[in-house]
Amino acid sequence: MLEARIAARVGPLELRIDLSLDGETVLVAGPNGSGKSTLLRLLLGVLRPEAGRIALDGAVLFDAETGIDVPVEERELAYVPQDYALFPHMDVLGNATFGLAPLDRRERVRRATAWLERLGAGDLVHRSPSALSGGERQRVALARALARTPRALLLDEPFASLDPIARRQLRASLTGWLREWRLPALIVSHDPADAMLADRIAVLERGRVVQQGTLEELRRAPGSDFVAGLIEAAPVPAGAD
Amino acid sequence: MRSGRSSAWGAAQLVASAALVSFLLLPVAALVLTLGWADFAGGLRNPLLLPALRLSLFTTGTSLALVVVLGSLLAWRVARHPGRVSRWMEAITQLPAVIPPAVAGVGLLLAFGRRGLLGSWLAAHGIAIAFTTPAVVMAEAFVSAPFFVQAAIAAFRRVDENLLVVARTLGASPFRAFLRVGLPLAAPGLVAGAAMSWARSLGEFGATLLFAGNLTGRTQTLPLAVYTAMESDLRAAQALSLVMVAVAFALLFVLRRMAPGAALPGPGVRGA
């Protein structure tokens, strides 16, 4: 379970976040500049909140009062940014094994290859990132992040760099994977179509979570114009009226 | 009207290019063309050559190592932590590039000489730097550091921050992220900076002469040997100069092979 109750000021933006996710997928939606990516950087430990507390499965990652601030590399949070950030000077296998440094080489390769195969990228191991399509890059980035068996997954605009066909295919694949793994996942997106990925949606406006609930709950009582627009553009889930 | 203007503009570019290229090439060509093989062979037997060559390779290698290690860490700090302190550090490391070498020599003497700011304290503890081989290394490091540091800052700034953040989330400590991601991605820029820095320190003359002197085998580097030979034998000075040019070209060739993407001087190289 990932819990964050934090306050931070980053440039002109003042964030006050109260959010928790427990084995579920939460979509953080909001207009540009609402603080979505900043929230991810605060959770990751790249930025330091001014106040509050972040905990993961009961372990405190940050606590302003006690001064606890676990470094980024020890937080066990997987992160896939919008451009996937594959290391351009390493091949796919080098990327996928990067996070498995404490293991011996054979085990690193075995585990990374297993994840690449699971995500449909098993035949790409010796390819350079520059030779991959957007969809392939995303699969490799996900395999690299998940090979470390993280406790939670943070995705920043996971489909923004893809063409519409790849976006549809990968959205469907990711929906299935997230259900299968039951890994707490926080997905930042401004695309209403990504609502189908999430168990719950948290709407962020001007640094505050202004409304959260299931897509259906938001549909029944949209709390702002942005939420109303989001719901209107979101696909209707199968079985809904 | 328009075509007349553009042809005049084209002609101006050609004339300016031809004039500058000729001016830059002529002295180097003169070094080669005005020396016969027998004079060159004679120059190679000049007793100043070998000690100066050995000393130059040793001192420039040592100063380059110092500049690269310290400069890389400083450049990483400046590139990754922008702010007032970083701006000041960057400005200070560029100072030696605009200070005339002779003035740098006086400054080094006043800082590290026997009666210098720090030198007097060092002398009291039995450490003398001025007019020794370490003084040559220091003079070379002083004048050449800005070339490496500036290139390294630019190269490190070009490394996408997201790659470093992802490396950290994959368990890499800040040092490992630097070593495995930052350093390899900045390598072409670092190699180019190291080559320019090395070339500058190989040619260093004024600061070395004032701070380290001109003692054969101890502080007489190749440029100082050329200067000394000039006083008695122009042909010997010319042969020594050609050796210097050959050493510089050989090193540039090796570096270009080591880092094909580096923006090093030479035909066919595109700036990064």
Layout of strands and helices, then pairs:
The complex is a heterodimer of chains A (241) and B (272).
Chain A: E1 2-10, E2 13-21, E3 25-29, H1 36-44, E4 51-56, E5 59-63, E6 68-69, E7 77-80, H2 92-97, H3 105-118, H4 134-146, E8 152-156, H5 164-181, E9 185-189, E10 200-205, E11 208-213, H6 215-220, H7 225-233
Parallel strand pairs in A: 3-9, 3-10, 7-8, 8-9
Antiparallel strand pairs in A: 1-2, 1-4, 4-5, 5-6, 10-11
Helix pairs in contact in A: 3-4
Chain B: H1 2-33, H2 37-44, H3 49-80, H4 84-98, H5 101-112, H6 119-124, H7 133-157, H8 161-169, H9 174-202, H10 206-212, H11 222-230, H12 234-258
Helix pairs in contact in B: 2-12, 3-4, 3-7, 3-9, 3-11, 4-7, 5-7, 5-10, 7-9, 7-10, 8-9, 9-12, 11-12
Quick description:
The complex is a heterodimer of chains A (241) and B (272). Chain A has 241 residues and is an alpha/beta fold. Helices cover 31% and strands 26% of the residues of chain A.
Describe the structure.
The complex is a heterodimer of chains A (241) and B (272). With 241 residues, chain A is an alpha/beta fold. Chain A is 31% helix and 26% strand. Chain A has seven helices and eleven strands. In chain A, helix 3 crosses helix 4. The longest helix of chain A is centred in the C-terminal third of the chain and has 18 residues, at 164-181. Chain A is globular and about 50 Å long. The model of chain A has no long low-confidence stretch (mean pLDDT 90). Chain B is mostly helical and 272 residues long. Chain B has helices at residues 2-33, 37-44, 49-80, 84-98, 101-112, 119-124, 133-157, 161-169, 174-202, 206-212, 222-230, 234-258. Residues 267-272 of chain B have low confidence and may be disordered.
